[in-house]
Design brief:
heterodimer; A: mainly alpha; MetI-like fold; B: alpha/beta; Rossmann fold; six-stranded mixed sheet; 20 strands
């Protein structure tokens, strides 16, 4: 077996192990939450018998390890159980499977994440490379100052500024990103432009600065001096000689920011009234809808693990020492 | 790119006049080169020699019109074939670099881009300067690999830098420099990082290819014996100024300046060999491995006579430093034992008691990294005095001052930080730290390799004096045969984790030798311009006969 394949499989196994650890943590920390769902739903007036019956119906009376195994094995098969909400004391069961609740929301979140990533990653790479090329010039300083400004501003504020500039004063984009499952693709792109732009402004600085730093860090290497002494132009030196050796740190930062696009966008969703997963999770937490909270947490954890796995793999395949062993 | 070099030999190619270069360090500009002239004709090889900090590399690069970041050319003229490089634009210079002027760097391992295949890097400049189309350049590179006697010349180019050895990389870098057929090559200490046995092959390859294409070259090194093999004439630099310049044979036979003579100072130390049968430390039948897998020592047995110096020689990877780690207990052996004064020592460091630890001390190659940069000299030397000898307060300070006097430094050093010391002073502090424990045995791991010749001489003389006064036993690890000749009583030759032979200096250095010892000894460059030629001739004759 090629050593790179072995390393990748090893990382994959580690990723799965991490996911299991995280699932245990999610499960047990939610069990530790104070208060009781049955009590909360049924209200103070409910008798102890009623509460016990309700708990039995939801399976909350079984020991925690049993519940964990049941939950995790069915989650692996895509079944996250049934939402607690809708099971009101009225007796009419209007509850829905967690998957049906999360599914469309997750699609929306991923759509926005991909949209923002398609703008921000190329932009960050371009800005980072050019800033490294013209380092310490006016251009470099301006790029640094601009990106630092956007990253230092709270994201809801960036969002409102964009609404002010691009929706109120110059009505180019809609200020609300209300999409439904039937919204056609181009319409969807148009409506989510402002949230995507907001997210771009928030994450571009980190990626751009890492790209710049990773490249400049290499410029003192003897092989870069060698390239200069072979008559390579500054552009060739950066693109051909520095960048290929800088992918690993850049990929790590990109992965980190892409994960943020999936799991950290609740504020932006709230500002633009965008029906994403973040909003759903916050709602679920306030209503103690434990199956939904657990499912969201597990999906978020998996997002981080997968993206970091990809970054690791990029780091491995761009390193000739690992890709072409002696 | 150069046309028909042979007929034009003798025309002036590079003419530098009154070159002045400043460098920025410690918050201010210093003069690095203080008005040096340099003239090189077509087809000539000039040797540029001096200690570190003499400015030889800076001057060599200036001949290409290149100044490193942090340096600037403040005066003088540089004419390359009539082109004024001191005032040329970056674009003009880039056109020359990699087509008419090429550079060979000191560390080939660090100077090849790890991300690209060797052949692509070899022909990169040739192709980008349109000297030759890519296909032709590649075919030519393979021929260059062949004439540089690289193994598998047809396919070696498709490898990545980490996949070939240091000696091979250095030859491929020579091929890279030669690929555009430049008029001038700057060799910047190209063999300094190589083992002597590898150095010979690389030197021979470089010399023959420079002769073949009649290329002019500037060969920068600190090793006079090496430059003697390569250069037609030699320029000696010191503190950014020219000391003298002369034709190679003349320079070697009668250097005019005392400074030039001091450059081979170590070779003048002569320690009479004294045999002894009183064994202080013995390692017997030791096998050692890293990570429990790769076995690096096989059945190693070495004996250290009390009050004597045993030199361990061998190339990198031969197991010299691993042997030191076994003796100190840093790497417990998987077989065999270490006996100290006849008693077996616990294998692992953590099982040894404080007194056992005290009696064996170590000095490292890199004095820089062996000291905590935030501790003063007083703390560094005082620590073992407290730890091993239990002294406190005034007593410690008194002892530290005594130790400083012992290593020929005065007590004003006590409050200094390592960063304020020169390389030689740092190594002296490391020696004092080892002495502070009042040890019986000191293991010296390449302690002079990072130092200039004159400083080396000082350190070696100090070590010899201390041995005489304090009756110390040294295990002296080195790859430098000149150092071995200078200080040892006994020699151990190691190769691929095994001891090839051990014996008194006179015996090991006198023929007949086992094959490896012969190869090692014959590979050490001598101060004779004909040495390399003779050596190659005799090796070829042997091959033909064998």
């Amino acid at each position: 077996m090629h050593p790179v394949l072995a390393t990748v499989l090893q990382r994959l196994a580690l990723g799965v192990a991490t996911l299991i650890m995280v699932s245990i943590i999610i499960f047990s920390s939610i069990s530790l939450l104070p208060g009781d769902f049955g009590q909360a739903v049924l209200g103070q007036a409910a008798t102890e018998d009623t509460v016990a019956a309700f708990r039995r119906e939801l399976g909350l009376d079984k020991p925690a390890p049993v519940r964990y195994v049941e939950w995790f094995t069915s989650a692996l098969q895509g079944d996250f159980g049934t939402s607690f909400s809708g099971r009101a004391a009225s007796g009419v069961d209007r509850s829905r499977p967690v998957v049906d609740l999360i599914g469309p929301r997750l699609k929306n979140t991923l759509f926005l994440a991909v949209y923002a990533a398609l703008i921000s990653v190329p932009l960050a790479l371009f800005l980072g490379i050019t800033a490294a090329l013209y380092r310490n010039s006016i251009y470099d300083r301006m790029v640094n100052a601009a990106t630092l400004t956007t990253i230092s501003t709270p994201e809801f504020f960036v969002a409102y500024i964009l609404i002010l500039l691009l929706a109120s004063l110059n009505p180019i984009f809609p200020s609300l990103a209300n999409v439904t499952i039937d919204t056609p693709f181009l319409e969807r792109v148009y409506r989510t432009s402002l949230p995507a732009l907001t997210l771009t402004l928030v994450i571009v600085a980190h990626m751009m600065r890492m790209t710049r730093a990773a490249i400049i860090n290499l410029l003192a290497s003897p092989y870069i001096e060698m390239a200069r002494l072979k008559g390579a132009s500054p552009r060739e030196v950066i693109i051909k000689h520095a960048l290929p050796n800088a992918w690993a740190p850049i990929a790590t930062v990109i992965a980190f920011n892409l994960a943020y696009l999936v799991v950290g966008v609740v504020v932006v969703e709230a500002v633009f009234v965008y029906p994403g997963v973040g909003q759903l999770m916050v709602d679920a937490v306030t209503t103690r809808d434990i199956p939904v909270v657990q499912a969201c947490a597990l999906i978020f954890a998996a997002t981080y693990i997968i993206l970091n796995l990809i970054a690791d793999i990029v780091g491995i395949v761009t390193n000739p020492r690992l890709l072409h062993p002696r | 790119m150069s046309t028909d070099n042979g007929t034009k030999k003798g025309d002036i190619l590079v003419e530098m006049k009154d070159i002045r270069i400043n460098g920025f360090s410690d918050e201010r500009w210093h003069e690095i080169i203080k008005g040096v002239d340099l003239t090189l004709r077509r087809g000539e090889v000039m040797g540029l020699i001096g200690e570190s900090g003499a400015g030889k590399s800076t001057l060599g690069k200036a001949a290409m019109g290149y100044t490193q970041p942090g340096c600037k050319l403040v005066g003088g003229t540089i004419l390359f074939d009539g082109i004024d490089l001191a005032h040329a634009s970056d674009g003009q210079k880039r056109e020359l670099w990699g087509s008419r002027i090429a550079y060979v760097a000191q560390s080939a391992a660090a100077s090849f881009n790890p991300a690209h295949r060797l052949i692509d890097q070899t022909v990169e400049a040739t192709v980008s300067h349109h000297v030759r189309p890519a296909r032709e350049a590649r075919a030519d590179a393979v021929e260059l690999f062949r004439s540089l006697q690289l193994p598998m010349p047809d396919t070696i180019g498709s490898r990545y830098p980490h996949q070939v050895s240091g000696g091979q990389l250095q030859r491929i870098m020579t091929a890279m420099a030669m690929s555009p057929r430049p008029d001038l090559i700057i060799f910047d200490e190209p063999t300094t990082a190589l083992d002597v046995t590898t150095q010979v092959e690389v030197l021979a390859a470089m010399r023959s290819i420079v002769e073949e294409f009649n290329t002019a070259a500037i060969y920068i090194t600190h090793d006079l014996a090496v430059v003697a093999q390569m250069a037609d004439f030699i320029k000696v630099l010191r503190y950014g100024e020219e000391v003298e310049e002369a034709e190679t044979r003349k320079m070697l036979s009668k250097p005019e300046q005392a400074y030039t003579r001091s450059l081979w100072a170590v070779r003048s130390i002569e320690k009479p060999e004294q045999p002894s049968d009183d064994i202080a430390l013995e390692i017997a039948d030791v096998d050692a491995a890293y990570g429990g897998r790769v076995k690096v020592l096989h059945d190693v047995s070495i004996r250290l006579p009390r009050g004597r110096t045993v030199a361990v020689v061998g190339e990198s990877g031969s197991g010299k430093s691993t042997t030191a780690r076994v003796i100190t207990g840093l790497l417990p052996p998987i077989k065999g034992e270490v006996r100290f004064n006849g008693q077996p020592l616990p294998r692992a460091l953590k099982d040894r008691n404080r007194d056992q630890l005290r009696r064996i001390q170590m000095i490292y190659q890199m004095a820089d990294t062996a000291m905590n940069p935030r501790q003063t000299v007083g703390d560094i030397i005082g620590r073992p005095v407290q730890f091993y000898l239990g002294k406190r307060g005034r007593e410690v300070e008194k002892r530290v001052i005594e130790l400083l006097q012992l290593i020929e430094l005065d007590e004003s050093f006590i409050d200094r930080l390592p960063g304020e010391l020169s390389g030689g002073q740092k190594q002296r502090i490391c020696i004092a730290r080892a002495l502070a424990a009042e040890p019986e045995i000191i293991i010296c791991d390449e302690v002079t390799s990072a130092l200039d010749q004159i400083v080396q001489e000082g350190i070696l003389k100090l070590l010899l004096r201390l041995q005489k006064e304090l009756g110390l036993t040294y295990l002296f690890i080195t790859h430098d045969i000149a150092t071995v000749r200078a200080i040892s009583d006994e020699i151990v030759v190691m190769f691929q984790g095994k001891v090839v032979e051990q014996g008194p200096k006179s015996e090991i250095l006198a023929p007949p030798h086992p094959d490896y010892t012969e190869l090692l000894l014959s590979s050490v460059p001598e101060m004779d311009p004909d040495w390399l030629t003779q050596l190659l001739k005799s090796r070829r004759a042997e091959q033909a006969a064998g």
